[in-house]
Amino acid sequence: MWPRRRKKGPTADHGGPRRRHEPRHPCQVSLRAKCSSWGTFRDLFSGNISNSGLFIPTDVASEAGEAITIQLTAPDGGDLELVGRVTHVIRDGVGVQKGLGIHLEGVTSEASQRYIALVKAAAAHCAIRPATDELIPIDVEEPAPARKGPPAPPPLPSNVRQVRSSSGPVVGIDFGTSRSSVAVVRKGEVIVLQHPNRSREIPSVVGVLPNGSVVIGADAQRLRTLEPDAVVASPKRLLGRHYTERELEPYLASLAVQSSPGAGGEVLVHIRGQTFSVGQLCAPLLFALRKRAEQELRQEVSRAVLTVPVSFDEPRAAALRQAAQMAGLRRIEIIDEPTAAAIAQNFNRTFRKLVAVYDFGGGTFDFSVVDSSTADLQVVATAGDTWLGGDDLDDAVAQAAANGFWREHNIELRHQVVQWQRLLIAAERAKRELSARDETAVELRQAALTAHGPLDLRHPLSRTELDTLVAPAIQRSLDTCNEALELSELTVDDLEAIYLSGGTSHVPAVREAVAAFFGKPPRVAVPPERAVVIGAAMHCARLHNERVHAT
Q1: For residues 90 and 99, what is the distance between their CA atoms, to the nearest angstrom?
Q2: Do 288 and 125 meet the contact criterion of CB atoms below 8 Å apart?
Q3: Is residue 14 part of a domain?
Q4: What is the pLDDT of residues 109-127, one digit of tens each?
Q5: What is the pLDDT of residue 28?
């Protein structure tokens, strides 16, 4: 397959740094591997990859020269099986990660092409860089001193270096509570960028591997199912908040990671012996979005329009600016999410009344009424619920599945942190499936281990049952809408149209409830889950007096 490289230095137990003739790229993807001495496959993560091999951080014993089989997911979404040989085993050392160096050999031509595509995707998507032989730190930008806002975070870890800034295009970023995305303007079109896995969003999840490397998105989400105490989901919820805020107490108590107050009362998070400010956890996500925009535009990006929920006050907005500065964004404008969603709708200019935006995202809910009769949209009413989102629907489904499992087996899954995280992911998958189907099932393999073997969970779920489970959360969103209308002395009859925003708006029960509450069917001008980021990018174009339309 690939010519074997001439080895320089030890190939068995680590005896010093080895020179590389090919660049290695950080690529933390889940995989299954089996050495000839193991007998069974083991679930592991890759550390970094090159054209001819990869490094797998692990403590599992192996010997140089052993044959190894690796199964992982290729960029095209299909399974990819590779075969190779262990060329070196790192068992001990200071500042290096234990693990196995693998040289791939005897791989078919088709598998070789798909693996090279994975290497290219890792190189293109690389928001982290190798600083030592096997250690893979995150590369983000050191923050500029803040004049106002929350207290400065603790010093950045030693693996963070400053990045130079320059002028360039402005991009739109939706740094969401549950998912994040970036859009750019090219030749008058707004394009929501795809990532290497072909998704236009990345989960807003950040994790830390045993070697200190920071992983984000889907990789961090997978790590969460194995080591939830090494992962923070939705760090935006904690951004700019004080540790002692009463409404924050139950959320902090629910986290698997440890936390504590900082010197100024801010939230600090402790993972694998390291202490992070919330901004330091948000920065890698923003950095990845910025780098994706640079790859698309082929020039440096240091300016962005970022969106926030209507509940964000100035200290929280200042904290977001500081996190964006860590990620290399120097000139930042912030607009609220409903306003961005309103911009994306490109309202029919024959409207002469007020138009509402119902924004039900993964982690927050916002509702705004705007005057669409003029060129500049004017927000006349707004309200939001910081703790309401699609996550609440997932939780309701997971609770029902856990109840059924307890009744059948007398085993409580809610007390098992890892299994509960896995169940929440399975619940979200079932919820999404019911947007297009009438029946599905919440399925979780090996939900519990017993003396008689593993037990699988399978909870049948119909759309009718889902509607009942999520009804309380939907009603909370409608109560928020009613609050905004009453405070502004408006009624539903004053609204000419209702536009949907946010991924949770895909749930049929949500659309039906909105239609019933407002007395008119809701409208969708752009995909609801992309409305905010499209609006942010369109606002960027307005800053440059460009005419644009969304694609």
Answers
A1: 5
A2: yes
A3: no
A4: 788 888 888 887 666 544 3
A5: 59
For residues 86 and 64, give the distance between their C-alpha atoms in angstroms, rounded to a whole number: 5
Q: Do 374 and 363 form a contact (C-beta atoms < 8 A)?
A: no
Q: In which domain, by residue range, is 470 found?
A: 347-524
What is the gyration radius of the CA atoms in the chain, in angstroms?
A: 24
Compute the distance between CA of residue 430 and CA of residue 325 in angstroms, rounded to an integer: 38
CATH of the domain at 93: 2.40.10.220
Residues 352-385: pLDDT tens digits?
678 999 999 999 999 999 987 766 778 899 999 9
Predicted local confidence at residue 423, as pLDDT: 95
Give the span between the Cα atoms of 456 and 459, in whole angstroms: 10
Q: What is the pLDDT of residue 351?
A: 58
**Higher pLDDT residue, 541 or 270?**
270
CATH number at residue 327: 3.30.420.40
Same domain, 31 and 78: yes
Shared domain for 289 and 419, answered yes or no, is no
DSSP state letters, 337-357:
HHHHHHHHH---TT--SEEEE
In a domain, 544, yes or no: no
In 3D, which of 17, 47, 15 has the Cα closest to residue 30?
47
502 in helix, strand or coil? coil
Rounded CA separation 229/258 (Å): 8
CA 146 from chain centre, in angstroms, equals 26
Cβ contacts of residue 480 below 8 Å, gap of 6+?
365, 367, 383, 384, 385, 388
Given a contact cutoff of 8 angstroms between Cβ atoms, the answer to whether 231 and 206 are in contact is: yes
